[in-house]
Write a structure and sequence with these properties.
Blueprint (H helix, E strand, L loop, with lengths): L7 H4 L3 H7 L4 H11 L2 E2 H7 L5 H13 L3 E6 L5 E6 L1 H4 L2 H10 L3 H14 L1
Antiparallel strand pairs: 1-3, 2-3
């Protein structure tokens, strides 16, 4: 059997979705915006306390570029910027709900890891 090269998208059609949705920090940002609504940068950073301001800025820019987050600039003194989840971002709700439901399996995953590690 001859094996030909395929792109990740051809091998697994959900690969591009996984790249977008499950990049580091994407899910906590989208979750916070979904749960708590429109927020300023400082509010969002406070809810995700382990993320650095630089990384939060980078991820918010990428999420805005991907259409999952809306950034609103208010020309005030001082300037105010708010972020909120877009309708496209909200459409990920069923996916996140399914993953949340699947999380009941995490104890079984931990048990499998412990069993595996014990054999090593």
């Amino acid at each position: 059997m001859k094996v030909t090269g395929t792109t990740p998208e051809q091998a697994c059609p959900i690969a591009p979705v996984v790249d977008i949705v499950f990049s580091r920090w994407t899910t906590p940002i989208l979750w916070a915006l979904s749960e708590y609504g429109r927020q300023r940068f400082v509010e969002l950073a406070g809810r995700i306390s382990t993320i650095t301001p630089k990384v939060l800025t980078q991820r918010l820019r990428q999420l805005e570029r991907d259409g999952l987050v809306v950034r609103t600039y208010h020309a005030e003194v001082p300037p105010r910027v708010e972020y909120e989840i877009s309708e496209l971002g909200r459409s990920l709700g069923p996916l996140f709900a399914s993953l949340s439901a699947w999380s009941v399996n995490l104890p079984a995953v931990e048990a499998a890891r412990e069993e595996y590690d014990a054999r090593r």
